Amino acid sequence: MAIVRLRNQDGRPGLRIHGLDLHHLSWLCAHKSRADQALPHNVAQNVLHFLRVRSQRHSECQSPVAATARSTYAISRNRQLVRFGAAVCSVPANLGQVVAVTAGFYHTCAVKACGELVCFGSPGSCNVPPGLGPVAAVAAGQHHTCAVAGNGQLVCFGGNQRGQCDPPPNLGPVIAVAAGLSYTCAVKADGELVCFGSNSHGQCTVPQDLGPVIAVAAGYAHTCALKSSGKLVCFGGNDFGQCDVPPDLDAVVAVATGPHHTCAVTAHGSLVCFGKNDLGQCLVPPDLRLDV
């Protein structure tokens, strides 16, 4: 989750972001735009400017942890990538310092301190395009990867059997990306949500009345989008109720999806999960409160 301050330490208006996960830009835009309105042009430009600056300066850290079904990858305090669990993908010995990590089924991708994207594991999923340059965000699906370049361009590679690596030619700059099982969703600079790839369960059929969004998360075959008002909208596969957003859910500031379940962080710091619960993945400890 991102921790965002809208004023600098000296009290002047500004923007300071720590622990930024570019999959969840909710805090950034929720404080900068009004409910159910398109993202202001200056907000989109500020986000893209931040992406460019972050790619060039490498001073902020995105996602410090990524998990697969059998292993976990975490970034230590000295920015070394540590793996534990089953050795699905061993960390390269000469990887160096990293600032972000994401994991697919059989491959892992890390953003180095210099902005370089390095992927390892299943060969078919790890062919980073030559000349990609520094990246600002990355998301891994089952066998594919999508990265946001410093200028906001979305670049995808790896398995493409369902078109999950074929962004629309007129997509333009994006501010957030999520990779599902065999599909991809991107939030454009104006807040429009665009999804492409497998649509077997309607996970790429964006509701016509959705409007601008500020964050997106992708499961196996369901998608959840967050509006600036804090409203959470989910669509696609719903076999286990993973798209049944509780009607009394408070305003949401961050969202994450598992294969068949969804978890949302509310503005009050509560974690609410719904969907498949066969292993207790939706049983939130009653005394859990998150720092928002």
UniProtKB/TrEMBL annotation:
Protein name as catalogued: HERC3 protein
Example GO molecular function: guanyl-nucleotide exchange factor activity
Stretches of the chain forming a coiled coil according to its record: none
PANTHER family, per the entry: REGULATOR OF CHROMOSOME CONDENSATION
RCC repeat start and end residues: 191-229, 230-268
Pfam families (alphabetical): RCC1_2
GO CC, alphabetical: cytoplasm
Source superkingdom: Eukaryota
InterPro entries the UniProt entry points to: Ran_GTPase-activating (IPR051553), RCC1/BLIP-II (IPR009091), Reg_chr_condens (IPR000408)
